[in-house]
Amino acid sequence: MTDVPIQMQQGTANERFRSGGPLFDLLSRGGLAIAILAVLIYGSLASPVFFTAGNFVNVLTSMAIVGIVVVGMTFVLVVGGLADLSVPATIACGAILSLALQPVIGPVPAFAAAIALAGFCGLMSGLLIGYVGINPIVATLGVGTIVLGIVQAAVGGVIVYGTNPDTAALVKSRLFGIPAIVLIFMAVAVVGHFALSRSYWGRWTIATGGNYAAAEASAVPVRAVKAGAFVITGLCAGLSGALLGLTLQSARPLVGTGYEFSAITAVVVGGVSIMGGFGSVPRAIAGLVFVQLLTNVMVLQGVRTPVQGFALGLLIAIAVALDVALRRRAGGAL
Amino acid sequence: MSAVATALRMRGISKTFPGVKALSNVNLTVDFGRVHAIVGENGAGKSTLMKVLSGTYLPTTGTTDIAGVEVRMRKPADAQRLGIRMVHQELNLVPDLTVAENVYLGRMPRKWGLADKAKMVRDAAAILDELGAAIDPKARLGDLSISQQQLVEIAKAYAAGPRIIVLDEPTSSLSEHETAALFRILRKMKQEGIAIVYISHRLKEVLEIADDVTILRDGSMIDTRPADGITAAEMIRLMVGREVTNVFPKTPSEIGAPVLKVAGLGDGYNFRDVSFEVRAGEILGLTGLVGAGRTELARAVFGMARVTEGRVEIGGKPVAINSPAAAVRAGIAYVPEDRKDDGIVPSLSVRENISLPVLRKLSRFGRVSMSADRKLAESYTKDFSIVPPDPERRISLLSGGNQQKAVISKWLSTNPSVLILDEPTRGVDVGAKAEIHRIIGELVAGGMAVVMISSELSEVLGVCDRVVVMRDGHASAPVERAALSEARIMALATGEEAA
Amino acid sequence: MTVLVRLVRYRVAVILGLTLLIASLTVSGFPSVTTLGLGLDRSATIGIIAIGMTVLLIARQIDLSVGSTFALAGITAIMLQPVIGIWPAALAGVLAGAAAGAFNGLLSVVFRVNALVATLATMLIFRSVAHWLTDSQPVPGTDIMLSLALSTVHLEIFTLRSALFVGSILLLHFWLTRTVAGRNLFAVGSNADAAEASGIAPGRTVFLAFVFAGTLAGVAGVLQSLTTNTGSPVFGAELIVTVIAAVVVGGTRIEGGRGSALGTLGGVLTIAALTTAMEFQSVPAYIQQVVVGLILILLVVLDRTVRPGPRTHAAAGVPG
Fold it and tell me: How many angstroms separate the CA of residue B33 from the nearest CA in chain A?
């Protein structure tokens, strides 16, 4: 009777989807659009700088780094993998290695190696979760701790600085007035969206999260699919970290702290169920846009940081509670 | 003995679900100190009646008296308060607590405000002892075998000191020795004046333990008789009842060479030494009582469960099937019994469900070809007249029969040479049922080999070319269509006739 | 029971023993009473929070917000000192923790928000409130002597909070194993439906478990603030990983239904012994992390692969 919130078993998902229906879809999809519109209107009225190209570029830039992680995290939630808490470590891995390896193997190989290693960390988590059957929270916490330690050990536990200013210039360059980093984010988002909605792997991901047993019975390689979501998140976080490192030209071990929560927040606010089987990249990014715009408006309005955090936290709670309530309502009406 | 002789009187009980009348005007009277058996085919309404009695369902019409007082039970707790205890087939126990704690779950004895473990262990040991069950009351429940857990469930009900105890297929996972022990305790409970409602398929056991027998068929009460005035054969006749009309017209088909051969297959627990073969263009029926091992066998053949002995051959060549993917490659398809758990992915559309096993074949460079995907779904939606005829509709919004048609479509998309259908028409309405039978007929006419698992005797008789009956994990020799009758199958399934 | 299974069951004790043995052999001066007392004191904060987390995990829930609750409770206790005095303020801090837990319970039970998401949200909310109240600055307490008094070592080994930790965990052990409510907690975490069918209210149990976890995070936070004579909004930011690691290393299962207080004690002590020993050897903090992470993963994998128990049968759940 009670909802078992952190249930790991892939039981029947039927209860959650029987209720569905067009009314529910409209409310949950349209709700977010209306919310974004409301923030846009309020922002434009309240602050003269809000509705300017400059401000929007700022918003886009600040959402690019976390946005890349959001794309990966969407796969994790959709496949029923709860959350990847190793993101801070994989971001640090990307940031520290992409800078530290520059003098050794050159900037481009360093960039690639950093992402590959972050992907390898994701593979470790994925194997533990998909094949050994370890709880994702424990597995990613553990792997994250180990990875972060090893990366720090590799560079001697200090802050790493960039040695190649050209790379920084490249990341900060603009194309048609749009920062390169934003273009990269958009590319990742488009690829992620098509991978999830158009590729067989994406369909498998949704099926595995929606009903693990039925997917397994339909010859879907469920273990690999589950592991794959964590590899994807590892790669995304690595890329995100590498870009962050190049932008800042310095990397601390704790550079990635908080990104896992920002990413989960965006995905959840976007209406992607934490129980899996349902969701898309555009939805998650809509959640991210909403959160970022709201934050932006609050910043422009001079709202203090703690109040912003408070509002965001409340937002997640309300968004999810509303989602649950709507689903139940829809179930009763059908 | 109680002053009132009648423990339970149910009058005019009907229960209607949207579209289905599960119970219609059932009367049941059970006296204190008697064992009252309820028998009927699968789907005759036994479970529904029991759920009414346990407070899970509120009947649509009808009244229930307990010890002469009219009661209205809205939830299981109400029934428990009135002294009604259920022993479910699906175990309702907590795996991480000890046996003794499970027996006293929700009403643990206290001593100085603490759980009195010593007393609990002592009392549980005494009850288990009476039951003749060699179970350590301090053992963790999850470490016990299923049959031991079943005994704990019975001990739990008995320990509550009930006035009425309802047992649903209590012997389905018990050995003969354990069954004998159970009957001893039932007789003892009888002497203590407890009214016992005993639901079972096993007619031999019913005759051994019951004082009265009520026969249900299609949701209606057929008759109530004293047990010593009835024979197993008579019970079977009353359960089956209807004249065998040809409600399931059989499409004639050419029977060819053997396609699937199962030899000496066993998993060491649920089924043992099972052998049979299915030929192209043939429907082989696989029937037996619930718990006889049919579903476990099918799942093993499809690679969803492990086997410990025997082998599977396709087209004369042995194949190793250790995953559903391997089974699909070998040309086997399986439409599972539990549509909701194993059959559909509820969050996906009909189209996305149908193409799931063949997604890779529909893809190029990882991208699913939408046109191929759509074409596949549209062809099945049309051929099988899935309603509504919209492949984009989320499958969880379809009716059971249409969901089933979509699941069958999903498996046909893999082009199998053998199709295993597990209870393909359970819980679907009459129209969809005929439709599904028509589809199966067309498939065998096209040369497919079909294994159909079904508990519905008229269905088995109507469509199967040969029938294998399973009992306690063993399979009978195939019975040819000409030699089939409901009584014969029932006899094989209940052990009245040796396999 | 095979030796292997027995080893797995008592793995915490084995690992704790091994850690202590290796540490004594390699680190000079490690086996002294002073070191022990030091290790115990530093483990107390994690330990007290781990007590609440043990209860929550057994009930098949989780609370990611304990670190924020920890900070919030400490701030409450310090900021109210000038207003209502030290001890009432301390009590208010603990109550703040309880209220935070009740809020989590409300979200989880009444609004049915997944515990992971709910406490993720409240982690942000409580942390923001902490920053809000303090303007993101550390707040000093009124009585600096109190912190010295709290750090006094009694009986050569216990400080107030380490004594409180050890005492509470023994109480928890007693409660989990001996009381009806404790046993019902396992029932709810293991099979909520069966528990409900037997007349136990899972919702109420889960709610109270959240309140309990919040209260203990509050106690730990108040003690931390009193000991340091400071209330800071950044306190406890990294606690959650260590707490979950300690509880899981102690054998409590994150999927609910299984766990023990003594296991958690073992888990907390193992991690404390490890970090203390490694610090004595000047092992960098990041290597310490690697070791803790490896032990966590290793134990969970062991638990997963050598789990005793019967084979499960599909037949058990097939309805008639």
Answer: 35
- A71 within domain boundaries: yes
Residue A78 domain boundaries: 47-327
Q: For strands B418-422 and B332-335, give the pairing.
A: parallel
The answer to whether the Cβ–Cβ distance between A214 and B352 falls below 8 Å is no
The confidence score (pLDDT) of residue B42 equals: 65
Range from A175-179, B187-191, B388-392 carrying the lowest mean pLDDT: A175-179
Residue A44 has pLDDT above 80, yes or no: yes
- CATH assignment at residue A209: 1.10.3470
pLDDT value, residue B243 = 47
Write the residue in B96, B173, B290 that is nearest to C186 by C-beta: B96
Cβ contact (<8 Å) for C314 and B105? no
- Taking contacts as CB-CB distances below 8 angstroms, the residues of chain A near B397 are 18, 20-21
pTM for the full predicted model: 0.84
In order of A294, C121, C136, the CA distances from C72 in angstroms are 25, 15, 12
Q: Give a yes or no: residue A273 inside a domain.
A: yes
ipTM of the complex in this document: 0.81
Phi, psi of B226 (to 5 degrees): -65, 145
3-state secondary structure of B66: strand
Q: Indicate which of B96, B146, B168 best probes the interface with C, i.e. most C CBs within 10 Å of its own CB.
A: B96
Interface of B with C in 82-101 (CB under 8 A): 89-97, 101
Model pLDDT, residue C154: 73
**Two tokens at A166?**
């050209």
User: For the segment B103-133, what is each residue's pLDDT rounded down to a tens digit?
Assistant: 998 888 888 878 888 899 999 999 888 877 7
Chain C residue with CA closest to A129: the answer is C301
Cβ <8 Å between C314 and B337: no
Q: Find the largest Cα–Cα distance for chain B.
A: 80
Question: pLDDT tens digit string along C66-82?
Answer: 999 999 999 999 999 88
Domains of chain B by range and CATH? 6-240 (3.40.50.300), 258-494 (3.40.50.300)
Residue B232 in 3-state DSSP?
A: helix
Q: What is the rounded distance in angstroms from the CA atom of residue B157 to the CA atom of residue A88?
A: 52
Residue A35 lies in a domain: no
Complete edge-to-edge strand list for the sheet that includes strand B274-279: B274-279, B258-266, B309-314, B317-319
pLDDT band at A330 (very low <50, low <70, confident <90, very high): very low
Q: Please check whether residue A19 lies inside any domain of the structure.
A: no
CB–CB of B344 and A203 under 8 A? Answer: no
User: Distances in Å between the alpha carbon of C119 and those of A11, A276, A314, B65?
Assistant: 23, 19, 11, 49
Q: Residue A18: its pLDDT value, please?
A: 41
Averaged confidence pLDDT in chain B: 85
First-residue to last-residue Cα distance in chain A: 20
The SS3 of residue B175 is coil
Residue C280 has pLDDT above 90, yes or no: no
The rounded distance, in Å, linking the Cα atoms of A254 and B391 is: 49
Q: How far apart are CA A148 and CA A138, in angstroms?
A: 15
Residue from the list C126, C127, C241 with its beta carbon closest to the beta carbon of A145: C241
Segments of chain C assigned E as strands: 139-140, 230-231
Lowest mean per-residue pLDDT among A219-223, A290-294, B296-300, C140-144: C140-144
Residues from chain A contacting residue B327 (CB–CB below 8 Å): 219
Nearest to A199 among B328, B357, B367 (CB): B367
- Closest by CA to C178, choosing from C268, C62, C60, C261, is C261
Do residue A309 and residue C131 have CB atoms under 8 angstroms apart?
yes
Position of tokens 């409300």? C106
Kindly identify which residue of chain A lies nearest to residue B341, measuring between CA atoms: A12
Give the pLDDT score at C315: 30
**Count of domains in chain A?**
1
